[in-house]
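no rush on this but wanted to send it before i forget. what follows is a protein written twice so to speak, once as letters and once as C-alpha cells for the fold. mainly i need to know what kind of three dimensional shape the backbone takes. thanks a lot i owe you, the record is right below.
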Amino acid sequence: MLLNLNILVDPDVSQSLIMELDHHLLDVFPINNIDLLESVELPSSCWDKSRHQFNANCLLAFAMSYKRSRIVVLIISKDAYVSGLNFVFGVASRGLGAVVSIYRLENDPDFIKKEIIHELGHVFGLKHCALPCVMTFSNSVWEARLKSSAFCEKCWKQLKQEF
C-alpha cells in the first residue's frame, strides 16, 4: 500500500526544512506522494492564553479539516501541550494524521525528523517502545535526544504489517 501525505505548516516554519524532510520521509515510509499545502494560520481558538501554548489536540482537529483521503501532518513552530503534560513534541491520531511542534527541537533538522517519524509511527498504529527505538516516549528534550532516529526491529516488523 502506498500512502499519500499532506504537510501543513505554520508560516514561521522554514520551507528548506520541509524540503529536506520530504526526501527523508520517502526513505522511511512507503509514501507515494507528499504534498506541501499552503502554510496555514493556526486558529486562535486553539491558543491557551493562560499557558502561552497551543492545545495540540485542538490543532490536530483543525489539521484533520484538511484531510483529503491522505495522512495530514501539521508542523508548527509554536509550543504545544495536551492536558496533563507541560508540553508535547506532537500528537497523533491513528490513520488520520499528526501535529508536530518544533518549538523545543532546537532548529535541528535531524531532531525534527526524528519527532515527525515518531508521530507518524503512531499514525500507523505503533505504541511507545523502549530505548533505543524512535518510538520511545520522551518527557524532556534530553530524553528525546537519547532515542534512536530509527525503529527497533519489533516496531519495524509491526509497521511493515500495516502496509
